[in-house]
Amino acid sequence: MTVLEALRAGLGDLTRFKGLRQRVEILVEGQAKDWVSGIGGWLVIPLQRDPQGFYLLSEDREGQRRGREVLQAFLGPATATIEAVQLSTAEQADRSLQVAGLVQVSYVRRAAVAPVELLDRLEDAVATVRGRDARVRPIRHSHIDLLRDFRLALLQRDSRLAEQALQDLRLTGQLSAENLRFLRIELLGELGRWTELRELPYLAELLRTRRSRAVNEVLLEMLWWTEVADLCAAGLTPQDVYKSTDLGARYGSLTAAVDVPGSAGGRAVAAIDALTRGDDERLQRLLHVADEGERERLQRLAALAQPAAQPTTGGADVRALFEDGQYEAVIQAFLITAAPDVAEFAVQAVLDIEDSANGSTVLDLVQTLVAEERVSLDRRLSRDIEDLARFVDSTCKGWVEWSARLSRDERWPEAAEVLRSQHAQWEGLGTLQASKLSELASGVLDAWTGVNADQVAIVLDLLCLAAADACSAPQALEFCDTVLVVLADQENMSAPVREAYLVLLDQLLQAAPAETRYRELLDQVGALWRRVASPTVFDWGLGLVEVLLNTPAPDLGSRAATVMAVLGRGQDFQKRLNLRQRSELEVLAEEVGMPLQIVQEPTEEADGTWRQLDGRVVGLYSLLPRAAESLEKRLSRLCSPKAVEGNADTVSTTALQSLARRADYLIVDTWHASHSATGAIDAARPRSKQILPRGRGVTSFLQALEQSISLAAANS
Length: 716
Known about the structure:
single chain, 4-stranded antiparallel beta sheet, 3-stranded parallel beta sheet, 7 strands
C-alpha cells in the first residue's frame, strides 16, 4: 500500500468539513505527492478515528520531532496542542498507516478556534515546508577526505569501501595516473592479492620511478610471497635465492628502498639482500625489530649464507652501487667524501628511499657544492634538489615536532599528508615522556582552535588510533582527552573517524577507568550517537553496543542506559534495517533485558543470502572470550549451519590448522589474535579465502560474513 492509498483509507468521510473538503483534499494529496521516505519527514492530515481531527504522522521519532517544531511554531498553544497517541490494530485507519510505515502518530487537538482558522495555519505550515527541497543530494567529498576514507578502509580490510573510495578518487580528477597506480598497489597489497599485484601491466615501469615508502613496503611483501618464499622453504642459500630470482637486475631499486621494512615478508627480502651484499649492520637492524619466531628464521638464513665481498665506495663504484639499488651505501659514500661526482646519485637515493635522517645533511652538502660551482646544475638535478628541499621542509622527526609546527599561526596545508606518510616511522606515543605528550596535546588543541583546524579534522582518525595505542600509558591521559575534545566538537563524524573512535573507546574502557571517568565516556558516547543516529550508521551503533558489553563497567546502570538508548533508536529504524541487523537488534535487546517489538519482515533476497550457510561449517579464530558461542547464537536466527567452530590457540596447533583447511567459511579476527597463530592460518589457507572483519566484536564478524557470502553469490 502506498502512502497516498493509506492516507485516503484513513480519511474517511470528508463531508464533516462543511465547505472545506476541497481544501483538505488538496492539502492531503499535495503532501503525499511530495513524500520522501526515510529522511525524517512528516505529514499532517485528518483521520477517521477516535478522536476525529488532524494528526501528525511520521515513520520515526525524528519525523515527529521535526513536525512538532514546525506545527507548534505555526499553530501556537491558543490554536492547538499536540498529543502523542498509540496506533491500534482495531482501527481500520490505524492498520492502513502501519502497513505504509507511518507508525509514529500525534493528535493535533484544536483549541477554541474555528476549524477554518486551524486549516489556514496548517496550510501555511505545509506550504512553507514544501518550499524546501527534501531530496537527498549526494555530498561531493574532497580528494583529501576520500584518501582518508581509502586508507582507513584498507586498515579495516574492507575491500568494498576501498574500491569505492578509489573509484571516487579517480572521478575527482585531482590525482595523476601515477598516484592512482600507487593507490591501486596499496589496495592489492593490504588485501593480500599478491599474484594480481605481480601481474599488473605497469609494474616494470613503476619499478623505475620514484615511489613512496608505503608502496615500497607493499612491493617488498609481494616480492616475498610471489618470488622468494618458496625458494627459502626449499632450503636455498640467500645467494642462490638472490641469483635465481635475479633480484639485483629486476628489483635492485626495491630491495634497498626500505632499510628496515615493516612487514615480516619485506624484512626477509631485505635480509637476503643484506646477506648477499655482506651488509651485516643492516642485518642486525632487521634482527633487532623481529619477534622471536621471525628472528629464528632470519638467523637460519644467515647460517646458510656464503661469505660475501664487501662493496667499495670509491667514486667509480658509486654509479654501480646506485644502479644495483644500494641507496644507503650511496648516501654514506657521499656523506664521507662529499665528492661532486656522487652528489647527483646521493640526491636521487635520498628521494627514492625517503631518508629523512640524512636528507637535510645531503641537501646542505649539495647546495654548498653548487654555490662553490663544483657541481653544475642541469634540468634534472635542479628539479631533484627542489624536490629534496620540499621533502626536507615537510619532514618531521616525530609527533611533537609535527604538532608544534601545526599549532603555529601560519597555514600548513600539507600537515595531514605529512602525518599520514611519515607517522609510521616515528617513535610510538606510548614510549614518549609525559612532558612530550603534554606538548603534543597542547599543540593539537592549539591547532584545532587555529588556522590549521581543517588539517586536524582530516587526520582525526589517525589521532584516534594513535591515542588508542598509547592510552594504556598513564602519561597519555592528557593527549587522549584532547582527542576526545576534538571529537566532541565535530558536527558529523565520517565513517573512518567513527570506526577509529570505536578502537579508541575500546582501549579506554579496557583500561578499567574509575566510575566518574566511565560515566564521562558514556556521556560522550550518547552525545555522538544522538548526533549521527540513522539507519545507515546503525551498524556503527551495534559496534558501540559490542564495545560497551565487552569491556569492564564500573557503573552497570549507566552502561545499561546507554546501550538501551542506542538499541531504542534501532527500534525506530527497524523497518529500514536488513535481516541481519534486525536479528542482532533482537539478540542484543534480549541480552540486556530490554523489551523490544521486532517487526519481522525478512525478504526473499536476505533469506537466500544467509541460507547459503545451511549445512556449512563456519570457523572462527579469535581470542575474544565466548566469541564462537555468541556468533552461533546470532547465526541461528538467520540460518542453520552444520557447525560454528571456534579456536583461540596462540600458537600453531594441529586443531587450528585442521580448522583452517576444512571450514567452508573461516573468519579470522586479527584484532584479537596471535601472530604465530595467524601465520599458521596463512600457511594452511590463502588470505583470499579468509574473512577478515573490520571491527572488534561479533557484530563485525557477522558483517564481514554477510559481505563475503553476498559477493560469492554475486559472482556465481
